[in-house]
Specification:
The chain has a six-stranded mixed beta sheet with strand order 1-2-3-4-5-6, covered by helices on one side. The protein is globular and about 40 Å long. Helix 2 packs across helix 3. The relative contact order is 0.14. It is built from four helices and six strands, in the order βαββαβαββα. By secondary structure, it is of the alpha/beta class. The chain starts with a strand and ends with a helix.
Length: 138
């Protein structure tokens, strides 16, 4: 099921997971079953994309990491969606979502399919830090 900006501020499970105050633009999930969380999406115009990137990346990372969504998708639409915007978003992802992969998609024209531009991968420094922490806790 596809749901858009559902207000889950009082949802008991999301409260426990630290995600109650966040409202992603779209959720693809099986309602009432936390194991059916397929995709969390944020959608933004290319003209406004740089404003709100922190909130969007934070929300995507939180739902991917804490709530267990299988995919996090950031869809930017508009003919202005170009490589330099992808680079700027990737740089912000290193700061606000360094620990989870987020798919970056551009939809640049009506009647054309969206295309995946890249996957914003966890940074090498973050992966190394997590591995070191795991080794120490054994």
């Amino acid at each position: 099921m596809l749901n858009g900006e559902v207000d889950k501020i009082a949802h008991p499970i999301l409260s426990q997971l630290g995600a109650a105050g966040y409202k992603p633009d779209l959720l693809v999930h099986q309602p009432g079953y936390m194991g059916g969380n397929h995709a969390v999406m944020e959608v933004k115009s290319a003209l406004a994309a740089y404003r709100g990137v922190k909130k969007d990346l934070t929300t995507l990372a939180l739902f991917r990491r804490n709530v267990g969504y299988a995919r996090a998708i950031y869809l930017i639409y508009g003919e202005e969606a170009e490589d330099d915007l992808a680079d700027r978003i990737a740089a912000k992802a290193e700061i606000y979502a360094p620990d989870v992969p987020i798919e970056l998609w551009f939809h640049t024209a009506a009647l054309e399919p969206a295309r995946q531009v890249r996957t914003l991968q966890p940074s090498a420094a973050h992966v190394h830090s997590v591995r070191a922490t795991r080794r120490r806790s054994r």
